[in-house]
Structure formats: structure tokens, C-alpha cells
Amino acid sequence: MKRRDLVRGVGAGTALLALPHVARAQQAITLNGAVQFNDDHVFTRALVRFEELVKRYYTAGPVNFVLHKNSSLGLEKQYFEYMSAGRGAVDYGIVSPAHMSTFSRAAPFVDAPFLFRDLAHWNQVLDQDLFAPVAQEIERRARVALIGYAGGGVRNIFANKRVTNMAELRGLKVRVQGAPIWSRTFQAAGMSPSVIAYNEVYNAIQNNVIEAGENEAAGVEAMRFYEVAPNLIMTQHAITIRPICFSTQTLARLPAPLQEAIRRAGREAGAFGRQAESTEDGQKLEALERAGRLRRIEFTERAALKRAVDPVMVAYAREVDAEAIYNRINALSS
């Protein structure tokens, strides 16, 4: 065989060997997501928007999204563990920062009470990406990227009595979340906080074990807390942040243009989720009030409330190595 024919034959063989790889490259990529809620919930809608945006920005090949809803794959804690393992059971989802504390002590600080003055301040913090050091630590240690920030529910106190100022707040028996920072701050404000299981709050108020709880509008509505505590004290003590997460091990296996599309879509889907939840939060309260189910009570000393808990927040930020972030948040003028 002539040398030219031999080279041609080797080239053809190489091309044939490469064909299966070409075929594989053309196959659809499948990404698995998870959410605890149904189609109507804002978290589900934010993840659907994420899917739509990825498909808009990546046109080099098909990408299939499978979003597992209604806690069919467990709860957010499990989603984060699956993403960290990087085996494809869950590639993306929305997860509370509290479930990331194993990898970053500062993660729960992202969602701490009394951190934001109002929605404008909260939006500034997210727009300027002030939680980037926390996100970087989580991506490095957990191998999960925070590609966008949803959330936006404003948390207030629902109570079985009317409260308008710091004096009336003193001694209020209120249920708080289990993270220690919640008990510390509510106690510093003069209240008497208790950690009680979420599904026991209704009965605890009904039986006078406690007088109040705290939640955003969606929780007050879904759990019917207004039936036993119809006074919604507008303390605006917390605004939720729920990161859209993506497994970096999955991400690394994807084509570079698709990686870019995913990160861009995550940012935009997070912004969509924030806008939707913060808007609907007020609408839900208005509807409940119009129906006579609750009364929104103005809390006249919001600034004094924040001043009372600021020393606790300073100590907590120092404790979890988030002091620099906290200072930058406070330096912003809303």
C-alpha cells in the first residue's frame, strides 16, 4: 500500500472512531431539579423561569430539564446534599442558607433577622453581591454554586393581642426558628422567645402556651395562623433570601457556553423570584385583611427595635467571620 493510501486509511479509521463521540455530543443533556412545592409556589415558578432562560441563551444543542416537585425527592437539606455529591440526583434547586452551615459558618447569616432595614436595602445588598465571600466559600467547600438569589418574603409577628411599640412588645411569648441567632435577637428586643416545631405553633397559641409567632405572608396564609393570632405586627424584622443552587460537578461536565448560560439564567431567575415574591407578599396581606382574617398593626418603633438587637448582630457576625460583610451591609443607604 502506498504511503498516501495508508495515511488516508488511518485518517478514515480515526474519523470512524470519533463518530460515537460526535453522536454523544448531539444527544440531549438532562438536568434534574427539585423543589418542595407545587406549580403555584413562587420557588417553582422561579425554577421554571430558570429553565426557560437557559434554553433561550444556549442554542448549541437540546437540554432537557426534569423538575421534581412537591418534595418528591425529599426536602431542601437533601437537595443540597445531592448537589454536593454531584451524582446527578439533583443538579439544581432552591435551598435555604440554613442548610449550608456545615460548609460555611456564615451561611445562616445570609438569612438572619434584623439584617435589612427594608426591601430597598435588601435589594441593594443583593444587587451589589455583598454575600459573594459566603457564596465563594460554599462553592469551594460544598461544590455547589449559588447562581442566583430568590426570596423576598417579609417576616412580621402575628399575635393574639395588639402590639404597637417596644413597651408593648416586652415579654411577648413568641415562637422563633431553631437557629440560635433568632432567640438571641428576639430576647434582646425584650421578648420571651421559644423554639417550637412549626406545625405546633397554631395549637400553642390556641392553648396560650405562646402569644405569637413570626412568618411571611405565605406562611401565615397557608398555616391559617390568622385564626388564632389575627394581629399582624409589622416589625419587618427579616426578609428571606433563598439561593438558586447548582452542582459545580455537574456544571464542570457541561460545555462552556452552557455553563455561561446557566450562570446568567440563575442571576435573572433569582431576580424574577425576588420581584414575584416581594410583590405577592403584600398582595396576600391585603387580601387577608380585606377578608377580615387579620389586621395589620403598625409598629411605631422599628428603628428602636433594630437598635436593641444591633449589639447581638455585631457579636454574631464576628462569631461566624462575617463582620466585614455586616459592616458593608450597614454602610449602604437605602
UniProtKB/TrEMBL annotation:
Per its UniProt record, what CDD domains does this chain match?
Answer: PBP2_TRAP_Siap_TeaA_like (cd13603)
Report keywords, A-Z: Signal
Q: Does the keyword Signal apply?
A: yes
Can you supply a Gene Ontology BP term from the record?
Answer: transmembrane transport
Q: Which PANTHER family match?
A: PTHR33376, SIALIC ACID-BINDING PERIPLASMIC PROTEIN SIAP
Q: State what protein this is by name.
A: TRAP-type C4-dicarboxylate transport system substrate-binding protein
Which species does the entry assign this protein to? Neoroseomonas alkaliterrae
